[in-house]
Design goal:
With 178 residues, the chain is of the alpha+beta class. 38% of the residues lie in helices and 22% in strands. The chain has 6 helices and 8 strands, in the order ααβββααβαβαβββ. Strands 3-2-1-4-5-7-6-8 form an 8-stranded mixed sheet. Strand 6 (158-162) and strand 7 (167-171) form a beta hairpin.
Length: 178
């Protein structure tokens, strides 16, 4: 039998652990399995994998995700924030499509980011792409506006719409839109 103090301590710990989850984790907490279906438009590689099973991220699947989201200019692979996979999973489900998320840009090395920033106004000097916390995506046959609206409705991070370049930026940073 638990003492009143033990019961209150356990209750407080459970409440704190529930509140400590990120918005992305809270959005998919009830899913038993989480998967992504990705196609890198620059390399032609596709990946359909279950990356969360039995209550944990699957290391091999996460390595595959890191690989397909690598810097396609340099080939550099960076560990992506697992919340990016969660965000892509939730967004893909929200959109209700069976088509893959086409990857325009995942991780960017500082060198690649600087090169792109020097060529266009749309690249942030301190981009979350360099931290493995952002991905630019599109879906064949789906409008940028549709993807952007769905991503914004999740309120799980930043969302930028680039209709002239035909992609949507999503990240697991603070909630903001442009």
């Amino acid at each position: 039998m638990l003492s009143r103090r033990s019961f209150l301590t356990m209750s407080a710990a459970l409440t704190a652990s529930t509140l400590a989850t990120t918005p992305v984790q809270a959005a998919i907490r009830t899913r038993m399995e989480r998967s992504v279906f990705l196609n890198n438009i620059h390399t032609g590689e596709s990946l359909k994998t279950v990356y969360w099973h039995d209550g944990r991220y699957q290391p091999n699947a996460m390595r595959q995700i890191n690989h397909i989201l690598r810097d396609h200019y340099s080939g550099d692979i960076h560990q992506m924030d697992p919340q990016v996979a969660d965000l892509l999973c939730v967004l893909h489900n929200r959109l209700g499509t069976h088509k893959p998320l086409q990857i325009v840009s995942g991780y960017r090395s500082p060198h690649t980011n600087a090169m792109l920033a020097s060529m266009t106004d749309g690249v942030a000097a301190h981009s979350l792409h360099m931290e493995g916390k952002a991905v630019d995506i599109r879906i064949e046959g789906m409008q940028v506006r549709t993807i952007g609206r769905a991503a914004k409705s999740l309120r799980l991070g930043g969302v930028g719409q680039y209709p002239s370049s035909n992609f949507v930026h999503v990240d697991v940073g603070r909630v903001r839109t442009w």
